[in-house]
Specification:
By secondary structure, the chain is an all-beta fold. The chain has no helices and 11 strands. The chain has strands at about 1-5, 10-15, 20-25, 30-40, 45-50, 55-60, 65-70, 75-80, 90-100, 105-110, 115-120. The strands form 2 sheets. Strands 2, 4, 5, 6, 9, 10 and 11 form a 7-stranded mixed β-sheet that branches. A 4-stranded antiparallel β-sheet has the order 1-3-8-7, with no helix packed on it. A hairpin with a 5-residue loop joins strand 9 and strand 10.
């Protein structure tokens, strides 16, 4: 079983920065991709950014140029550097990862979420 633990959320003023971190633990065979989603009150969960083991990134349009995702394959961690934060970035941010077992079976794993609040 693979578990994901997020950290780094909090309260920040508009224009500020935060870095979210996520670490995978447990029985890890292969994790690909890793990414971040967010869910604001009353809204659906949406992709923020993802990254493969090869370093290929994918960003939602609303964060391009402001957020940067990175990962450490050796440590099975993924970070999200968030700059120029806006009040509309307020949400619970979830780490997720695709986990392969030795038989090749893939499953999607979610973290418990971390709150990010941006004040105006």
């Amino acid at each position: 079983q693979v578990q994901l633990v997020e950290s780094g959320g909090g309260l920040v003023q508009a224009g500020g920065s935060l870095t979210l971190s996520c670490a995978a633990s447990g029985t890890i065979f292969n994790i690909n991709p890793m990414g971040w989603y967010r869910q604001a009150p009353g809204k659906q969960r949406e992709l923020v950014a993802s990254i493969t083991t090869a370093g290929k990134t994918n960003y939602a349009d609303f964060v391009k140029g402001r957020f940067a995702i990175s990962r450490d394959n050796a440590k099975n961690t993924v970070d999200l550097q968030m700059n120029s934060l806006k009040p509309e970035d307020t949400a619970v941010y979830y780490c997720n990862a695709g986990s392969f077992d030795p038989s090749g079976r893939w499953s999607l794993i979610w973290g418990q979420g971390t709150q990010v609040t941006v004040s105006s």
